[in-house]
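Tutorial handout. Part one gives the primary structure; part two gives the three-dimensional structure as tokens.
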Amino acid sequence: MGDDKDDTVTLHLPPDAQFAELPRVALASLLRIHRIDPGDIGDLSTSVQHTATEMTATGNSVDIHLRVTDTQVCVDLDSAGRTVRLSAPRS
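Part two.
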């Protein structure tokens, strides 16, 4: 992998329930690009979805930064000055 900034995909999620599935879909697409079986990263997708839904429920947008490295899949969720980092090791 190259520079972390080049390997990061960012999704801006508005505080609207109709966009609730986007974080899961974006993560699934990134895993497919990197040929990672979703079963290999455990409950990361569910955790990302749950955290993003909680953050948007407060009426704030969320910036979601998805990154795949040689050793892990990492997701940072930023909203209203709060950052949550979720990650799973690559098998």
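Part three, for discussion. Helices lie at 22-33, 44-56. The chain has one domain: 8-89.
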